[in-house]
Amino acid sequence: MSRASHVFHTGELAQQARAQVPEAYREKVAHAIRSEMPQQHRDFFESLPVLFLGLLDARGRVWATPAVGEVGFLRSRDPQSLSVAARPVLGETLWLDLRPGAKVGAVGMELTTRRRNRMNGTVKSVNPAGFEIAVDLSFGNCPQYIQTRCLHWAQEPPRPEARPMQADGPDGWEARARQIVAGADTFIIASRAAEMSDRAADGIDASHRGGRPGFLGLNADGSLSFPDFSGNRFFNTLGNIAADGRVGLFIPDFVTGAAVYLTGLASVDWSPERARAFAGAERIIDVEPEEIWLCDHALPGTAVLTSVWGPLAETGTWTEAETETPV
User: What total of structural domains would you count in the chain?
Assistant: First the structure.
């Protein structure tokens, strides 16, 4: 078995082939995906006050949510594990699976420096303070599409308060949730492989997406669309969508600490004409929500924007895309 076949499942490999990713590149990057965390990743996670997670609910649907705490709430006692001394926000409300053996995806972002690392794993144990993740796959990501922010976490933040919204059609989106979507320059997407097996490649992935405010579009029928920009060509998210389709989005409002949560079904539109109308897009991803929640205090404070990643100026928004005529 090649290294690529070990760390990527068939859905990811199929999307890489469709995008004409050279086989030599696949093998090269596959060797950068490890079965344990290097020391710099361990140190990185331990420095964070928030970890974004992908987890399944009792019905096998995917959700994205943060776990938050004071710096030090994440500990890596050895290269194969990460201990989280916190519970996922809305974990009980959404019936998220944290039993030993459950799959979990994790992405850490240091917003002050735009550093980002990811890890996919399996819940090893649960304790009164939180849980421990056994590492299946560990890999770094470049800082593309991440905005620089300064965190202002409250010492005693209010408890998260969430309520469900109707998910069918345009009437399900309340004005406040629409505003969060329209103003978002960042969201987390969690996706899953079709099988939750013991293979390292079969699990949950949590990934960051960023763009200019307006890059996440709310359509007239209540669905969402966003562009797939040029990235590391791993195609973890797109491969999971091709294999299974179930995704979860965590869309934060960094100004207030509120967030929109949703789980639903995604599809990838490879039409060159549609992507061409959106500056910087290589493909378009559409999401049909199945369940939506609006959560106040999803984050324990605010994250003030201090610097916009320069190359974002070359990417588009849905308002701009609607005025373009594909050629």
Answer: 1
